[in-house]
Design a protein that fits this description.
Layout: H1 7-14, E1 19-23, H2 27-40, E2 44-47, H3 53-56, H4 58-71, E3 76-83, H5 86-95, E4 99-102, H6 109-125, E5 129-134, H7 156-166, E6 170-173, H8 190-199, E7 204-206, H9 214-222, E8 225-230, H10 232-247, H11 253-276
Parallel strand pairs: 1-2, 1-8, 2-3, 3-4, 4-5, 5-6, 6-7, 7-8
Amino acid sequence: MLTKGSSMIREARAGRRALAAITSYTLESTRAVISAAEQAQQPVILQAGSGSFGAVGRETLAAACLEAARRAGVPVGVHLDHSTDRNEISACVDLGYTSVMVDGSHLPFEQNVALTKTVVVESHRAGVWVEGELGALAGDEDSSSAGAGVGEMTDPGQAAEFVDRTGVDALAVAIGNVHGVPDTPVRLDLGRLGEIASVVDVPLVLHGASGLPDSDVTAAVALGVAKVNINAELRRAHLAAMAEGVARPGDDLRALQKSAVAAMSAVALDKITLLGGPTADPRKDPLR
């Protein structure tokens, strides 16, 4: 069921759980995420963001994600990820997205505050909740390779001011995390995360969770992270399944699609259960 409002993320934080927010590029990835969430009987967020629209178009992908969410047997939010464009944000709000992320992290602090506050006011009028970002992550959210180094860390003192002045419903933080799977393993600055959580009263968001040890992710959730973004690992499973399928003789495109959905669903199920609790029954196969 398509779920508007910020109750899902607030309830997750109160229960020391987190929502898996998984990026979709295709019908196959959309199907995989919903199937995994239904198997786990956990809520989930489908992210159809700026980088996802390039091949198929914003309206087409949004329509697929929103319809899949409406038909799902569990609560599903549809989220715009990492948008720097107010026009794009407004368009997605009009299409029916349940939440949006305005990314002003590349701007000076005062400009980030101004941009984020404007989006919050406009989105709240439509009943859409807003994620902002303070600090900067290295890497590209649409690329599996992260390279080396981390971006600018979130300052706990600024975080409190940012949340207070903008009215955001959730805050994405930079605590050593990077987009993609890093060449060199990174560890989260959990001390910094604890400081941020102690001075802000909104759920926190962890981007760039791919490749992190499960122990770091669950520790972050225990400290107040209530939304964890997942992209690279699902994308790698998709590409690997397609490569394997193409190498086999034959031209049955349906078999290729089914194998891609199954591979992505398995990854999504692992992440959803890690973040929300092991309630899935592995004997049930929603893809049959």
